[in-house]
Amino acid sequence: MSAVTFETKSSSASSSTSSLVRQKRQVDPNVLAAIKRATPPKPKILIPLLRLLLFQLYFLPTSFIAIPLYMLRCIVPRFRLNRNWSFISAVYIMVVRRVMRNLIRFGVQPIAPRKGGLRDRNTLVATVASCLNLSGPGGSVVLAKENIKALKLNATHGRPDKVWIPPAGPEYLDGILAVKAGPNDRRKIVTDVYTGPPLLDAKWLKWSIRALWFTHKPQIVPSQPRSKNKPTRPVMCYFHGGAGVTFNAGDLHMGQNLAKTFARHAGIDVFSVDYNLAPFAPSPVQLYQALSGYLYLVDELGYAPEQIYIGGDSHGSWLTLQLERYLRSYKHLLFENAESVKIPGLVLLSPWIAPEDLSFRSRERNVGQDIIDLSYEDWGVSAQGLNKLPFPLSDPWNTHANKSPAECAALPPCFIANGGSETLVDEGQHFANMLRKAKGLPSSTSNQRIILSPGELNCKVVHHVYPHQVHDYFTVDTEISKAAKVYKQIGTWIKFTQTLL
Questions:
Q1: Which parts pass through the membrane (predicted)?
Q2: In this predicted model, what pLDDT tens digit does every residue of 204-247 receive, in sequence order?
Q3: What is the pTM of this model?
Q4: What pLDDT, in 10s, does the model give residues 356-374?
Q5: How far apart are CA 426 and CA 364, in angstroms?
């Protein structure tokens, strides 16, 4: 049997077979040999440090001039970027805008976390080094003394809120995640949702990625690998934002402001996958690492697919929709009783739906008051190499607004949240209406309402727009109390969607 047959036989199985059990897929021996030969990728250290240094040398001194000017400007409401903001919010959002524009200007990125690396040890020095690297201290679990003693948590055994996810094996990978057998691999992968060459370098199957737990209560010990007790509560498999090129699952904004607050107010444990950033990890590596995180919850921690919600903010929402598409398209490779598997719901916060500009008016209308600049998207698209993939940027793998009506109808329940003053609010509304139309739901909704009513739209599509809020306001320090109101609604929505399973 040829090498091509090994790849294409498993690919077509989803359409030609209705088997209810996970198929034992043969993997091309050339692919196995390539994985065996491969060595883990080596992240760059010097260039990120130099970029960070240049950023700080410029940003800190000039801030002593800029911030007082912002304060003077914001005294009068009509001179604020949005006159509906409070003085504190107006000043802080201007500072965040300045931070974001200079992060883009200098190309600032944290150094990739590495298992066993200095920044991921359980020491004070490691914590300081991580913060200086814009990576943050990590997850959020405060353990009682008896739990610490029971789990023997120390520098040898590690923290319970930080885990290292083993890379998913090649038997789970097909289509867009098919593994290259070598630099000259000329195979053609043929599946229902992807036709083209293998895209994933074998070296990524040698690289573990970090994930951080943010539990719904501070003293809750998260599920441990191969525990005798199966988890009984739902969990959120989460992906942070940042255009695929910035931020980190454990930093102050994505970790403490968003994930920790989300977990505590929605009442759900958040498993935040710290996928690697581009260009170190070009597309589709981030999708592969997202899949590895999801499979870790299933295979190592014992969660059933029906317990695992998938969510993210901004680019993390884009990655959420990519992962859902892969899980649905290749479920015959991933699950026992594949045909009965259901994903309970998706949470899309300030979602990035269309890397290809489809002329959404809010992109131009709101860019003058939003924290992100349109060049942020350009950086993400370029660094991830989305324009270099063997399919156009308009393909549904990249532009989720181009999903077919049948695919939209197949999506699980979605909770979509936007800020009313963000550049991406129109595409959030567009995507919500696409889903409603495909599912035969009413196209209108009470976007401005804060309270989610039981059974609203059967919970299948909920779109919440918080008036006057910026992109990803969930991460902004001054807006956390507003974000918490949305998380409470999501917690209610999660309870409702559990009744649909």
A1: 49-72
A2: 999 999 999 999 998 888 888 877 888 999 999 999 999 999 99
A3: 0.91
A4: 777 899 999 999 999 999 8
A5: 11
